[in-house]
Amino acid sequence: MRIDLNCDMGEGCGSDAELMPYISSTNIACGNHAGDIDTMKRTVDLALEHGVAIGAHPGYADRENFGRTSMNLPIAEVHKLVTDQIADLNEIVVSCGGRLSHVKPHGALYNQAAGDTRLATAIAGAVRDFDDSLIFYGLANSLSISTAMSLGLKTANEVFADRTYQTDGSLTPRGEPNALIADEATAVEQVLDMIKYGRIRSFGAIMIPIVADTVCIHGDGEHAVSFARAINSELRRNGVTILAING
Hints:
Number of strands: 10
Oligomer: single chain
CATH topology: TIM Barrel
Structural class: alpha/beta
Shape: globular
Order of helices and strands: EHEHEHEHHEHEHEEEHE
Distance between the termini: 14 Å
Radius of gyration: 16 Å
Helix content: 25-40%
Number of domains: 1
Largest sheet: 7 strands, parallel, barrel
């Protein structure tokens, strides 16, 4: 049994160096919702040092709200938005002697696309048009995944260690109570349930099926480092190999 353990990084949260030893993939902010050229390079260097797969983490140009405010942009603009961010990070990765592995949209862009075929098509189309060998990370069992697959991309169904779920498989919106998991033991139990048994306990206490190819720990989370350390340890103790999707 194997799983990819990923983390959103390069967002100025100060914990990237501590987190990197516990993960197998990193999603690096590309300058829109967070990050800049220097931050991207430092994060890429850290990932290469630790043998961690590098992915682009494009989001809306919305630094004030950390890219977590929904927008209604023209599809052509979304395609360009995603393409430009992938290109910016890719240039740095190549200059450092690495290779871009995957793309994972950020925040509102990610969540909107999970239920919007037009937006999902624009994002996945941008990834395909830039480099069709890149792996597309999207919310497990969502339109993002099925749309990317229909465009011929390799996909990774993503689940979350530090978020709660609704009965339809969507994430509980951040503005609602109990959207975030703050207890380490609860996060570990949720991850093990998703990987070993293919299920998740929804906010309504109903067990729903879920596909888990990669587990995300948010790098900006209050307990990010302790969660990553504990999840990494428990996965290994349970015989789960932590390995990047393309590893």
